[in-house]
Amino acid sequence: KAGVTQTPRYLIKTRGQQVTLSCSPISGHRSVSWYQQTPGQGLQFLFEYFSETQRNKGNFPGRFSGRQFSNSRSEMNVSTLELGDSALYLCASSRADRGGTQYFGPGTRLLVL
Amino acid sequence: TQLLEQSPQFLSIQEGENLTVYCNSSSVFSSLQWYRQEPGEGPVLLVTVVTGGEVKKLKRLTFQFGDARKDSSLHITAAQPGDTGLYLCAGATDSWGKLQFGAGTQVVVTP
Questions:
Q1: Which of A98, B25, B58, B93 is the most exposed place for a label (fewest CB within 10 A)?
Q2: How would DSSP label each residue in chain A?
Q3: What angle do CA B17, B23, B27 make, to 5 degrees?
């Protein structure tokens, strides 16, 4: 069974731009969670989607948004990029049950200049 | 603020030695997962523990979940250079899709 895939793997943007990252979950997994990983803060939860609905959200500004499609693929968008948004963005998929094991993709490395 | 405290932050050992990483919290978790992460890659799942007091063994790795489901440990026997990486513990609560991560333990095993 194929794992979680994320595209693109690397991105360079400038301040003020916006970016869209994509995630395809493991086949049969309907829950997709997004995390931001930085050296200073570690892994921080952004949001979780299930059945095209956002079920949970972390403490990030409204510039961070996401969506999920009917095939469970998910995208996250960051608008008006700031230097501090430079990070590794990870998505993870799981079966829908609460507290279920999450399987991570390889991540998208975003650098904001 | 990390609700999950991992210790130590860094471990450097010689091949063949043993090591233990600890993950502690004041919160109760429905399950706890351990991951290993290589630089620039996503975390790779090692194990999920669910039951208080549970012990799981994967070859040279032994995982334990505390009786109260608030803490866990990872023990590696006879470490090898391939065990080098960032070890992360992550606790699941009743919050949909959200794992609470520890800061990680960087393990370096030298030949």
A1: B58
A2: ----EEE-SEEEE-TT--EEEEEEPPTT--EEEEEEEETTTEEEEEEEEETTEEEEE-S--TTEEEEE-TTS-EEEEE-S--GGG-EEEEEEEE-SSTT---EE---EEEEE-
A3: 165
The fraction of chain A above a pLDDT of 90, given in percent, is 91
Q: What is the C-alpha to C-alpha distance for residues A97 and A81, in angstroms, rounded to an integer?
A: 33
Do the chains contact at A56 and B48, CB–CB below 8 Å? no
Q: How many CB atoms lie within 10 A of CB B97?
A: 26
Q: Look at A4 and B42 and tell me if their CB atoms are within 8 Å.
A: yes
The closest CB to that of B103, out of A31, A42, A104, belongs to A42
Average pLDDT over residues A88-105: 89
d(CA A78, CA A44): 15
**Inter-chain touch A104–B33, beta carbons under 8 Å:** no
Nearest in space to A86 (alpha carbons), one of A32, A19, A25:
A19
* A33 closest CA partner among B17, B8, B96: B96
Q: What's the whole-number mean pLDDT along residues B9-19? A: 97
Q: Which of B29, B88, B97 sits opposite A33 (nearest CB)?
A: B97
Q: What percent of chain A has pLDDT over 70?
A: 96
Q: Rounded to an integer, what is the distance from CA A111 to the centroid of its chain?
A: 15
Contacts of A38 in chain B (CB under 8 A): none
